[in-house]
Amino acid sequence: MEFKGQLDYVAVRIEMFNAGSTPAHKFRFSISCDIRPAEGYLVEDGSLKSAVEGGILMVPGASSWLNCGVKINAAERNALRADTSIVLVHGLVEYSDLFGEDRYYKFSFINQAMPSGTLHWGLQPSKFPSEAN
Question: Whole-model pTM above 0.85?
């Protein structure tokens, strides 16, 4: 995760990797980024759209980058630096396995504390557990 432009945009990149031994068919995703208060944040039901139709074939060992971002103002940027706000990143990945079974992975991450003097910082799991079938 990093600040972009005139520090008025937070860009997020998450790499999804097929670590299995079979391809993921119709791989598709939906991802969202939001600025939330650090305490008491929620992931609203229905806030993620179903993943886009179609999708790609992801062979074993291949990866795909999921990108999202959010425009921020000076107050939000300062709140992120002070750890009173967070960037909430949540998403849904869907695909079909080798046997035609539909699979999904729901995830939710927040930013780690921003190291002083840097424009980049990492992600960590949010208080909401990931879910998959």
Answer: no
